[in-house]
Amino acid sequence: MCGRYSLALRPAQVRQMLQDDNMPVDDAPDDEGDEAPRQSYNFAPGYHGIVYRADVPDWGAGPRRREQVESGARGEASEPQPVSYKLQSMKWGLVPFWTKRNPDYGSMMKTINCRDDSLAHSGGMWSSMKARKRCVVVAQGFYEWLKKDGGREKIPHFVKRKDGKLMCFAGLWDVVQYESKYPNWFILRGDGKSEALTTTDEEHKLYTYTIITTDSNKQLDFLHDRMPVILENGSEAIHTWLDPKRHEWSKELQALLKPFDGELEVYPVSKDVGKVGNDSPTFIVPINGRENKSSIASFFAKGGSAKKGAKKEQPQVEVDKKQGFIAEDVINTRRGGKEAPTGVKREAEEEHADEELPNKTTTAAPSAAPNKSPSPQKRRKLSATSNRTKSPNKAKQSGSQKITKFFANSS
Questions:
Q1: d(C-alpha 140, C-alpha 5), whole Å
Q2: Does the CA dihedral 218-219-221-226 come out positive or negative?
Q3: 270-289 mean pLDDT
Q4: What is the pTM of this model?
């Protein structure tokens, strides 16, 4: 089956890539806006994707049933019309045209895929679509899960064309208009009973599609027993599949539904793709591939270089048993080729020596020996672990004596 695929391209990009493969596109949806299809690396059922089909009316290829019968009775032959092709935004999960109510999610999930063997028999829900409403679903690749340990562990794999071209899945499409009820409006039936007025919404049409699946080829049989029908881009097979002149199902059309015989690439990817709503370009990158490794390596390389640079910027520190830690800038500061004394605050640079210092209010300390010439004070060395002062002696408190006296007085 095919329950998830990737298409993160704008309609303009898809249009150009298809035209490069000899697949003309006469009309396409806008890249942005309410009607624009969704772009996602994790494309899930219910999303609006890009469908490539012949530009035919909503009833499909060929004349309407009533017109076909009338023209056949008169012996008239329909004139051939020029064929044009277009890209259209449609919702994944086919809703047949006879549906009256919007189906729930569970019902929609049943029609995201259509088995090729179910089209080999006449009748069934696909009978009108397979004859008149055939299309191609455009994708970059699709996901499939490899089951291990009896299904307990599921490893997602991404499958794409080896040549990097778009994948063209064989599909079917349809259009539906839901009925709308007006509970306050009633009509009188012939039997005398009344019922709520019901009309169809002529303005809103919902276009939906399904992807046809077939048996897996030799490359993918280890992964799953089913795979989408992949038609070769610009081939005669794809023109036959989309030919609006073929509005009756035939063995020739059925023969197109077969496993892909081209070269594919398949590899495990991140398990985050398993959750609907997650979206990342890393989902289509091999989990052990070069791109992932290079991105991870570059990430850690940047972090490692930053760490190395930070390590160089940190100053070297020496430990002195008496003084503790002494910073490098204190040790290696030189003035006139001589090292500054250890632990002494550095003096101002020579270029600032002539500048006047700002006036400060100072209090002169009384001189102990005024008759003697002042001698330069010996500056004390700084220590990072000791301030060379003793803690003040705390007076003994007579707390216990006060408590004893208190209880003695109370007694």
A1: 8
A2: negative
A3: 92
A4: 0.66
